[in-house]
Amino acid sequence: MPEKQTVERAREDAREGKSPSTQAGEFVREEMHHVREGKHGAASAKQAIAIGLSKARRAGVKLPSPSGSNVSAESKEKASRDSRRGQTGANHKVSAKRSRATSQALKKKGHSAASKSALSNQARTAARKRGAASRHNAAVKASRTRKAA
Prior knowledge:
By secondary structure, the chain is mainly alpha-helical. The protein has seven helices and no strands.
């Protein structure tokens, strides 16, 4: 369950017309804080990011399902399930046993997945997969949409 502040910040981003990935960034940021403060761990930076994106989809952020040949069918199905849950807004009782099992499993994972170096490595490898033009366009758009300091 995301914190109220996180949901509010994401809604503010939506009101300002920012992209869904920017809105989802708030949830990923919260997830990194959770891993850092020891609320639970993650096997890798990628897993911590995926948990944050899942929370964002469930909170109603209109993120597309992951695409590409290296994404498993289970991941795509989970993402579409999360999106449906976020769009309908229907709440149902969550299995306490399953929640507890998930929490216990995550607590056994390491906390270095959210370290500065791990996130830096993840960002670098993700950027390397995109082309130079794509990175340039992202930087130009960021400078256009940046809040006035």
